[in-house]
Amino acid sequence: MSRPSTATTAARTPGVSNKKSDLIGARLPKWAPYGAGVGAVVLALGLRSLLDWTGWYTAFFTAAVLFIVILTAWSFSVEGRRRAKDRFATTLVCSSFVAAIVPLVLILGYIGIKGISVFSADFFLKSMNGVTSRQDGGGLYHALVGTLELVLIAAVIALPIGILTAIYLVEYGRGKFAKAVTFFVDVMTGVPSIVAGLFVYTFLLLGFGMRPFGAAGAIALAILMVPVSVRASEEMLKLVPRDLREASYALGVPKWRTIVKVVLPTAMSGLITSSLLAIARVAGETAPLILLVGYTARINFNPFSGDQATLPMMVWDQLGKRSGTTSNDLTEARAWGAALTLVLLVLILNVGARLLARLARPKTS
Amino acid sequence: MTDDHFEVAAMGVPGAMPIGPNQPDSADQIDPPGSRTPDGRPEAGVSGRSERIGDKVFKALAAGSGGLLLVVMAAIAIFLIWKAIPAFTGNSGNLFTTQTWNPQGSPPVFGMAAVFFGTVVAAFIAMIIAVPIAIGIALFISHYASRRAATALGATVDLLAAVPSLVFGMWGLYFLIPQTQGFQQWLSEYFGWIPIFDNPTATSAGQFGKSLLIAGFVLAIMIIPIVSAVCREVFLQVPQETVDAAWALGATKWEMIRTAVLPFGRAGMISAAMLGLGRALGETIAVALVLNSGFRINWHLTEPGGDTFASTIALKFGEASGSPVAIAALIAAGLFLFLITLAVNSIARIVIARRKEFTA
Q1: Chain B residues inside the 8 Å CB shell of A250
Q2: Architecture of domain A127-364
Q3: Above 0.90 for ipTM, yes or no?
Q4: What is the rounded CA–CA span in Å between residue B267 and residue A59?
């Protein structure tokens, strides 16, 4: 009978781990995973030199597979089936974590290295006007202006609608209509960005025969932003303690005054956080902008007429202009620079929102 | 002790009637806004005249913005259908079975078969890879990592979920495709007896690359953060009693997870997977960057070529403008995509909703 207490609890209880207890079954030594790891790497390297593998990837994956096999087999022979299964599952869970997070972080590192080389004061202060693909220089000022304007317009349209809908769902929402709204907010979260773009295209550009302009893209971004904003704001409003509302009602304050003067101020920091996250979610959208905003290398401050440049579209444009040969790296470098700027913008919004949420948390509780 | 006590308390919950009489009492009517309390201080902002018209207006405003969302959803469907009509009438091919895409030609010939195939296959590959890994990550964060590490890792995953898709596409184009040419050749060489891994046209590693398999890889990496974020939320809500009960029965960690965590999280995992599927189906730019257009159904997944609804719309839009049928064809593609994602998301939500009713 093996008493099933985990290795950690056994280690934490003083005296028990030193003495061999007959209540605890046979265990692998603590260094077993490391040992198995070293064994797997050595074996994989041996195989690599034996079979003349060229790349390192094969050796790496072989080592990973060997590690899992060695550790599980060893555990099976010493600890029995249940523990072996447990070790197998633990290894799989940990390796799935490594297998996914490492590439994701590598992507950010890769884009950082590729993009930082082109960063300079000029890159942020100049537009691409008159800069050909073979020419040095040029910058993303025009695109930065466009992105900021579009995101701002989208936020002005989407956030009030989103927050009001959240208020409706949390404070008033009962019955079939509220259920329908909840359902469609969820479904709307899944509307692909290109479909939102196509809708605005059919509605505004085809319907009214307009030329592409900045604000049309902003409307598509707003459609994408609303459901995110509703979901997040709803969570924040639900956090407001019921007691506060009841206290206000007990004082005879009408419901709408309670919402405006009690609920919203209490949830304010959370609402700002959720709004920033919603903005960050759409700032990097490319697909609707291809259809609606067009692209221009010139600086266009007016989002209501004429093509406007945006950061994602600048990347798209520069990637489209690359010649395919390595001799002409200028467009690629600029594309990476613009992409890095976009990532930084989104990450700053995200980190800012989360820091704000953390700073504001003690006040509300 | 009667239930009345609780009913009165329940009236204070949001959505119920506020406690107290519906009519403002005399004291409220006497005090005009901005008046002073008996000891001379101005009235606090919270009190003042209770104007029930304000309530009505505010509720109408809130409900109206909720209704606006429904209107927008309906408008998306109506406008896409309306503007896609020329694609149904002016097409000499069969919209569902034709594989070629030539809406500018005379007569215009196009169909969704190849596009539908590419969309579904790329999303399916993404799901096969991403869902197990995402569940693994969620389990790692919720039940394996220490609390401090879990918070940091959770925040990292959330951050990665916000990285624009364009960036994933660029990474796929510049890093993943060159690095996996050898792997694709190896698959084709040693597993070529399975038709989907076979690439009959390529003779050297350099001819492998922009295939549906790679598109699936990129999509998988993109949806892992969102799927694991949703799974993590569900796994963290597993009742401690169930977990403790499993421990008390002598379960190993894996047995605890299998008997307590996974059954509780099943609905959540399904809906997370569906959300990921919705994302993968509708992803545009990343796919457009890592796929070569081919417009034919090709089961050899390592062979370059393939199209999805979204990437077709983005890539063919430039050359379509000016030709009404071509634009309508793209709108029809958008309509199909909209309907597919609508169905996937609706199923996901219904699964969650049923689970909620079940637990409540």
Answers
A1: 12, 19-20
A2: Orthogonal Bundle (1.10)
A3: no
A4: 38
